[in-house]
Design goal:
It contains 14 helices and 17 strands. The longest helix has 105 residues, at 148-252. The protein folds into 4 domains: 4-146, Histidine kinase-like ATPase, C-terminal domain (Heat Shock Protein 90, 2-Layer Sandwich), CATH 3.30.565; 182-295, Helix Hairpins (Orthogonal Bundle); 300-451, Histidine kinase-like ATPase, C-terminal domain (Heat Shock Protein 90); 456-584, 3-Layer(aba) Sandwich (Rossmann fold). The chain has 585 residues and is an alpha/beta fold. The chain starts with 6 loop residues before the first strand and ends with a helix. Strands 1-2-3-5-4 form a 5-stranded antiparallel beta sheet. Helix content is 50%, strand content 19%. Residues 232-450 form the Histidine kinase domain.
Length: 585
């Protein structure tokens, strides 16, 4: 057995014949009683030893029995039986031992064998101390060796006690049967009573369902009324708050009348309070829109670099101490993200502002990584953390986790609820994990999206540049349905003149335009601050391979002239929006 260091020898004996088996049984009872096992456990140990001893005597081996006390990991009485020779461990005696004891471990080597019989102490019973073990040894030494007659008397006494115990249990069983019969009669009566009540209840349930339908309608109307109230009150509040914020900013601009330090402090306080109130009002209004189902995503290509720079600048004033750092990790190389940029900004701003509010030292970190066709935005902080029982409740409307920093943190308790609603609208999910005292990690999981997700809204002015009347006519037939006004130019110089005169919202530019090539015209457009963000589609001949590098560098989409159709034109417009956003950033 393992844990030999935790075992203490108590006594030992040798078994050669049947008379020794009687002594082994008696010794087992004595040792079990001496170490503190109760009467039933004493009988179990003695019986198991007696049956195993007989099995070994029948196989004509001389056996040494060593009684030991195991103190770790749990107290137990262990009897090690060892012999020289080979024996089998099948038979009634071995089965009895396995049934009565907690463990029987057998090891047979080439010329020797051992078996360890283990009986655990009952729960709550402690093993004897070192002093107690010495007492056990003295007690066992004083008991001496018994004989077969003494053991037979002991067995008879055990049998009488067992019979008395069985008789007592028989009487208890009879009483239990009588009580059960009485209970059965009561159950039958109760069943009849319950059947009658159930029939009456079913009648009431029908009426209750009708009442629930009425209550459901009332509840839905109340929810709609609450949403309308939020929306209306938010609109009513936003106008005067905007005025207050605007006026305070006018007072603080460099050209305004000079202010004293105290006046400037008061104006800044008014501006900060007004800005906070305006943010809360906007949150209420957005939540009302989300609940009413009127909030719809407007997918567009997202410039994450630009967005992260804006977030860093907007949230830096929220850092209240030099001990906290806002870290925005560099973006890895990844496909373009197409989603609603406004909703994404609101989600990330909510998550980052929460992290800054409840972080006293360390950092609030924003990172993003690509996983298949999805992006995972991770906002992790080293703040005070959120208890486990609050992890689901933080996404409930108006719920704020009680903590020592909550008093000084402005908010309505709508932030995470609103953020999760927006994540769902965008086809994603928002999850949270947190450990009190260590920090919180919130993960926003969003689909990457494709250019097909970008809705084509009406184009104000479209400029078509092509020297061939036939090609220009084909383009105009497709663009007329998308643009409010279509302007045509037959060469590159005319195109630049038209674009600088009235800024177009979209340009279709033939790669082989007379006077100036399409690439030359596009290069000039990208150098003009007023035209740098205008989407451009380069229309090419059959082989567009040579134009791909120029289009990618200058932020334009490509369209093959022979493939002009309603579908390809719309696809090219979407790709042009993606390309110009990626390049202009």
């Amino acid at each position: 057995m393992a844990l030999d260091a935790a075992r203490t020898d108590l006594t030992r004996m040798t078994i050669r014949d049947e008379s020794d088996v009687f002594q082994l049984r008696g010794k087992g009872r004595q040792v079990a009683a001496a170490v503190g096992l109760d009467g039933q456990d004493q009988i179990r140990v003695a019986t198991a030893l007696s049956d195993v001893g007989r099995e070994l005597v029948r196989q004509s081996v001389v056996t040494t029995a060593v009684f030991t006390l195991l103190t770790e990991p749990a107290p137990a009485l262990v009897v090690d039986l060892g012999w020289a020779g080979v024996v089998t461990t099948t038979g009634p005696g071995w089965n009895t031992a396995r049934m009565l004891l907690h463990d029987v471990r057998f090891e047979q080597h080439e010329h020797t064998g051992t078996v360890a019989l283990l009986r655990n102490f009952p729960a709550g019973v402690l093993a004897p101390s070192a002093t107690g073990i010495d007492g056990v040894r003295r007690e066992l030494g004083a008991a001496g060796e018994g004989n077969a007659l003494d053991e037979l008397r002991a067995q008879n006494q055990e049998l009488l006690e067992t019979l008395e115990d069985l008789e007592q249990k028989r009487r208890e069983l009879e009483r239990a049967n009588e009580e059960l019969e009485e209970t059965n009669r009561g159950v039958l009566a109760l069943y009849k009573e319950l059947s009658d009540e159930l029939e009456q209840t079913n009648t009431g349930v029908v009426a209750l369902y009708a009442e629930l339908d009425v209550k459901t309608t009332q509840l839905r109307e109340a929810g709609e009324a609450r949403t309308r109230f939020w929306s209306n009150i938010s609109h009513e509040l936003r106008t005067p708050v905007n005025s207050v914020v605007g006026l305070t900013r006018l007072l603080a601009v460099p050209g305004a009348d000079p202010l004293t330090d105290e006046q400037r402090r008061q104006v800044d306080l008014i501006n900060d309070s007004g800005t906070t109130l305006l943010a809360l009002v906007n949150e209420l209004l957005d939540t009302a829109k989300a609940e009413s189902g009127s909030l719809r995503p407007r997918p567009a290509p997202v410039d994450l670099n630009y967005m992260f720079v804006q977030l860093r600048g907007a949230l830096r004033p929220m850092i209240r101490t030099d001990a906290v750092e806002l870290v925005v990790e560099d973006l890895p190389v990844m496909p373009a993200l197409v989603t609603d940029p406004t909703m994404l900004v609101r989600i990330l701003r909510n998550l980052l502002s929460n992290g800054l509010k409840f972080t006293e030292a360390g950092e609030v970190r924003l990172s993003v990584r690509e996983e298949g066709d999805r992006l995972r935005f991770v906002v992790a902080d080293t703040g005070i953390g959120i208890p486990a029982d609050q992890h689901d409740r933080v996404f409930e409307e108006f719920h704020q986790v009680p903590n020592r920093l909550q008093t000084g943190a402005a908010g309505t308790g709508l932030g995470l609820s609103y953020a999760r609603t927006l994540a769902t609208i965008l086809g994603g999910d928002l999850s949270l994990s947190s450990t009190p005292g260590e920090g919180t990690e919130v993960v926003l999981d969003l689909p990457l999206g494709t250019v097909e997700d970008i809705p084509l809204t009406s184009v104000g002015i479209a400029l078509l540049v092509d020297g061939a009347d036939e090609s220009r006519g084909r383009l105009r037939a497709e663009v007329d349905t998308l643009a409010d006004d279509v302007v045509e130019a037959k060469d590159g110089r005319s195109a630049l003149s038209a674009a600088t005169g009235t800024r177009p919202d979209l340009i279709f530019l033939d790669a082989d335009t007379p006077l100036m090539s399409g690439v030359e015209v596009l290069t000039v457009l990208r150098q003009d601050p007023n035209l740098v963000r205008v989407p451009v589609v380069l229309v090419c001949g059959g082989d567009i391979g040579g134009m791909e590098l120029a289009a990618s560098t200058l932020g334009a989409a490509l369209l093959t002239r022979s493939l002009i159709s309603a579908g390809t034109v719309r696809q090219a417009i979407r790709e042009a929006h993606v390309a110009v956003r990626r390049t202009a950033s």
